[in-house]
């Protein structure tokens, strides 16, 4: 649905060049809630502005439903942009206009009939749960309510894509969750493809099915959310995952078990393969497995986390068990070896 092919973007200002995007390629499928995560300055906003052609790439192409936006006339481009809604961190509402008129604006610009506009605006305000605020002004609303209005306005022209640029960064955690639930409903009920730009991994964890990690204008890792959380490849990705699934073992967990001489301590991923391996060790070797600590997190209806286990027994069996758990597919990591 959205294809970015070898996109580079160079900003030139006062004789200085900044390369905001370096040969970025990305495919977002219809129905995805696709997250793009990165630290400040990674190039996320630049990337998302390429998708609706708010800015054009220095090189490379943007294809929406297979059509190259580069080849569009200005009129065709405006038409294509109507199919892409966008919401922002600071909502970008017009303070001098009522909520009704803010939501109506894209329809007024599209020269829709008055009755069509009225029906659509009221339908959207009902959808975002703010029908009673039609005659209020933006500064009479809370941040969460303002973002709901931003969402209603973005949906006014019935887009098939919604871009969200740090849309929950100015909101408290509870309000963030309610906006994320609303985005999920939009994705499911209206079948709208959503692209989310964020610096918070918890946002990706809660609603995205795919994720790309950006660093210094490049996509350094991309994949299904479960795979990326379960097996992050790059250092920056691991740091982001850590913010949701901490992998430091608390001192208290380690000080509470007895260091039996000859026992060995391992850290393993919490997954089916590791569970089967531990069962194998218990069944086939004369080894006791003590569970010292575990963390678990729900990602896309799957459990992701890790556990710390202690192997206790005679040294031959403990060593055999350790060898088995350190195999390639299990990759148990020894602590204090
Ligand atoms: N209009 C512009 N003119 C010049 N440089 C720009 C412009 N927009 C962005 N940049 C530069 O491009 C790089 C990427 O910026 P961008 O805003 O895309 O990053 P970001 O990941 O969205 O960061 P943040 O989360 O802080 O918004 C930065 O070095 C920034 O200074």
TrEMBL record:
GO CC annotation terms, alphabetical: plasma membrane
GO BP annotation list: amino acid transport
Pfam families, per the entry: ABC_tran, NIL
Family matches, as SUPFAM superfamilies: ACT-like, P-loop containing nucleoside triphosphate hydrolases
Record flagged with keyword Transport: yes
The ABC transporter domain, residue ranges: 2-241
Family stated for the protein in its record: Belongs to the ABC transporter superfamily.
Annotated protein name in UniProt: ATP-binding cassette domain-containing protein
Organism: Siminovitchia fortis
């Amino acid at each position: 649905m959205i294809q970015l092919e070898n996109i580079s973007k160079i900003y030139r200002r006062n004789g200085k060049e900044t390369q905001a995007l370096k040969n970025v390629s990305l495919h977002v499928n219809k129905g995805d809630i696709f997250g793009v995560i990165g630290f400040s300055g990674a190039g996320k906003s630049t990337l998302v502005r390429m998708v609706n052609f708010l800015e054009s790439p220095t090189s490379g192409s943007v294809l929406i439903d297979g059509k190259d936006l580069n080849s569009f006339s200005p009129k065709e481009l405006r038409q294509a942009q109507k199919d892409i809604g966008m919401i922002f961190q600071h909502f970008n509402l017009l303070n001098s206009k009522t909520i009704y008129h803010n939501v109506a604006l894209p329809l007024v610009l599209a020269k829709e009939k008055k009755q069509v506009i009225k029906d659509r605006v009221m339908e959207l305000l009902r959808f975002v749960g703010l029908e009673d605020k039609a005659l209020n002004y933006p500064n009479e609303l809370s941040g969460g309510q303002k973002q709901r209005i931003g969402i209603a306005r973005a949906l006014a022209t019935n887009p098939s894509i919604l871009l969200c640029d740090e849309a929950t960064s100015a909101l408290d955690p509870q309000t963030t969750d309610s906006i994320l639930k609303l985005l999920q409903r939009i994705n499911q009920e209206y079948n709208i493809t959503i692209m989310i730009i964020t610096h918070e991994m918890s946002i990706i964890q809660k609603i995205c099915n795919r994720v790309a990690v950006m660093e210094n204008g490049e996509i350094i890792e991309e994949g299904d959310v479960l795979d990326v959380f379960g097996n992050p490849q790059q250092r920056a990705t691991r740091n982001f995952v850590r913010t949701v699934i901490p992998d430091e073992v608390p001192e208290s967990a380690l000080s509470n078990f007895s260091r039996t001489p000859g026992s060995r301590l391992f850290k393993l991923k919490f997954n089916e393969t590791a569970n089967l391996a531990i069962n194998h060790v218990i069944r086939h070797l004369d080894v006791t497995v003590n569970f010292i600590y575990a963390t678990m997190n729900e990602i896309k209806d799957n459990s992701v986390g890790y556990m710390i286990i202690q192997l206790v027994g005679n040294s031959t069996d403990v060593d055999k068990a350790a060898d088995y758990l350190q195999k390639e597919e299990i990759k148990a990591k020894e602590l204090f070896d």
